[in-house]
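Quick start: read one record
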Amino acid sequence: MTEEQVTAAEFEQADWRVVDGGASAWYDAPSLSVGAALLARIAALTGGGGLPEVDLRASGVRVRIGRPSADLTGADVELASEVSAAARELGLAADPAALQIMRLVIDAADTPSVKAFWQTTLAYEPVGADGLRDPLRRDPAVSFRGLDEPRPLRNRIHVDVGRDPAAVDAVKAALGQEAFGAYELTLADDEGNEADLVPGGELSNETTDWLANFGGMTFYPTTSAEQAVSLATAVARLADDGGVPVLVDVRPDGVTIDSGKDQWEDDEGAPRPAFVDLAAGIQKAAGELGLSADPTRLRFVQLGFDAVDVPAVRAFWTALLGYEHDPRPFLTDILDPRRLNPVLFFQQLDPADKPRHHQRNRLHLELAVPQDQARSRVDVALSTGGRLISRTPNHYRLADPDGNEVAIV
């Protein structure tokens, strides 16, 4: 380790934790505009270049410094300290317990083939020898591990992926597959791991920059921190004034604006007029900044669980993740109250399908949390019907009441 590199233990401050290799902080905030004010302060601290990743929410703002697999440096520590000072000046308090990052792990006998399928389907970039990552770091990363035993039956966990229609067609052509399943949306890798690939649609005639893809979303590439801050500030003001909360994710190369799953539509599945008005206002503001949308960068990912005991499995994951139930009675969705991690939903598995119920999935989740939060997460999981399978000092492997596994790291 060079003099410029620091350990995770050396980095951790009152506001900050090392999670998934990078340093993160969450600050509660009363509005998007207050979060945008912190973003502007961060841009000033970085001199207009090299913005860290900032996620604005109506309830707060998450800041991430550094990248997984990259060493944290003394400069990272200094920036984190300066961000903390700026947050305090704005009256914002940190909540380290809010920090978590979900990842997907796939056990594969033929890793290159399985990895190629998922890289194509998700439009992810390779990272390291055995991983894939969302280039915008919004959706969960995927890693691959050797399969230790044959598991030929369908997983009880599958992935829903929403992309723009042209991308969906391109994926099918690249894979040489025709979609199957009840809705003719399902694709599968060579070992049977499934993804439902869903094409998005137009939001409205007035919002051509936007894609209706589980949520209403758009992405604007930017060429400078000034552009990104100007757009995020305008979006925050419009959303706060209209009373329509949105997700604003700022990255070094662009800004994603997203309603969150189903938040753009009414009870009949039609676009809500208030959201369409907001989307049109954001599109106008982006145009005035000289920005053009790029729908090919947009993606939505959620995870579906087939379970014999849906209420028990749903209760386990809700407690472990600190999620909330979707209030609509006809859905089993659970969601991150801060909309930083993917939605999970649950479907009934036939109790008579015992072989599939008892087969260990080829797919499981990893949950990266701050080191000082890991034990409490394990305790919550065990109190809601979970089972501890194994542990090391930095790794707990648990199973939910139906045997679906999660590693807390």
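The two ends are 23 Å apart (CA to CA).
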